C-alpha cells in the first residue's frame, strides 16, 4: 500500500496534463495560469470533486505542458524537460504515504526550487545484492525530520505525508512516486522529468511504477 486508498474500490480519476487536454492548451480559449498555484490547485481538485473521486492519478511517460510554468525545467542552454518519469497521486495535503516495499533511506533533502520536488525521500531496496530505488516527492518538511541514511522501513510503514504548497515545491498537493534501477550517483534528488531526446535513456532506468501498483487504466 502506497496511499490510504483502495484502487479496487475507491473512485479515482486519471488526469491528463499533456497538450491533448483542451483545458491546458487551446487555440480557442485562454489556458489556465499554471504559474498561479492556487488556480492550478483549484483546477485539479475541482476535477476530482466533479468526478466524485478521492484521488487523481497518472502521468508515467506523459509528454506534459505543465512544466512550462517553471524555469527549473526550461533553461536557455538545455532542451526543455517535459517527459514525466513517475506516477503522480493528487490528493489532500496531509495524506499519509506508506512504504510499498521494504527498504532503507538512501538519501533525502528539501529541493526547494519553484516547481521542484520540495521535500524528497529516496529509499533503497536490495534483493540478491541488486539495488533499486524509489523516490517520493512533494512531501511535508516534517516528513524529513528524524530521518537518517540507512533508516529501515517495512512494507506498509508510514514514510511521509503529502505536502501543502508552497513547501512542496509550489504544486497542487500530490505525491510523485518513481522507481529507478540506477541512481546515477545522485543523492536526495533524481530527475522526475526528462527531455524528449533523453526519453529512451531515462525510461530504461525508470520502469513504470504501475508494474508494482497495478492500478487499472494506467497501462
Written description of the protein model:
The structure is a single chain. With 219 residues, this protein is of the alpha+beta class. It has a single domain (12-213), classed as Glucose Permease (Domain IIA) (Distorted Sandwich), CATH 2.70.70.10. The protein is built from 3 helices and 12 strands; from the N terminus they run E-H-E-E-E-E-E-E-E-E-E-E-E-H-H. An 8-stranded mixed beta sheet has the order 1-2-4-11-8-7-6-9, covered by helices on one side. Strands 3-12 form a two-stranded antiparallel ribbon. A two-stranded antiparallel sheet has the order 5-10. The longest helix is centred in the first third of the chain and has 15 residues, at 37-51. It is globular and about 45 Å long. The two termini are 19 Å apart. The model is unreliable at 70-76 (pLDDT under 50).
Amino acid at each position: 500500500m502506497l496511499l490510504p486508498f483502495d484502487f479496487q474500490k475507491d473512485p479515482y480519476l486519471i488526469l491528463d496534463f499533456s497538450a491533448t487536454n483542451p483545458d491546458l492548451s487551446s487555440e480557442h480559449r485562454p489556458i489556465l495560469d499554471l504559474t498561479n498555484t492556487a488556480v492550478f490547485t483549484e483546477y485539479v481538485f475541482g476535477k476530482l470533486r466533479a468526478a466524485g473521486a478521492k484521488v487523481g492519478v497518472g502521468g508515467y511517460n506523459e509528454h506534459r505542458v505543465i512544466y512550462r510554468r517553471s524555469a527549473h525545467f526550461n533553461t536557455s542552454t538545455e532542451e526543455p524537460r517535459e517527459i514525466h518519469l513517475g506516477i503522480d497521486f493528487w490528493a489532500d495535503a496531509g495524506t499519509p504515504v506508506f512504504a510499498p516495499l521494504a527498504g532503507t533511506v538512501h538519501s533525502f533533502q528539501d529541493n526547494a526550487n519553484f516547481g521542484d520536488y520540495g521535500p524528497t525521500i529516496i529509499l533503497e531496496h536490495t534483493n540478491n545484492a541488486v539495488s533499486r530505488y524509489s523516490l517520493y516527492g512533494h512531501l511535508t518538511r516534517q516528513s524529513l525530520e528524524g530521518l537518517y541514511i540507512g533508516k529501515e522501513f517495512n512494507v506498509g510503514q508510514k514514510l511521509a505525508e503529502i505536502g501543502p504548497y508552497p513547501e512542496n515545491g509550489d504544486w497542487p498537493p500530490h505525491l510523485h512516486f518513481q522507481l529507478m534501477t540506477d541512481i546515477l550517483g545522485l543523492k536526495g534528488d533524481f530527475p522526475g522529468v526528462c527531455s524528449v531526446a533523453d526519453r529512451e535513456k531515462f525510461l530504461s532506468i525508470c520502469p513504470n511504477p504501475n508494474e508494482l501498483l497495478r492500478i487499472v487504466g494506467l497501462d
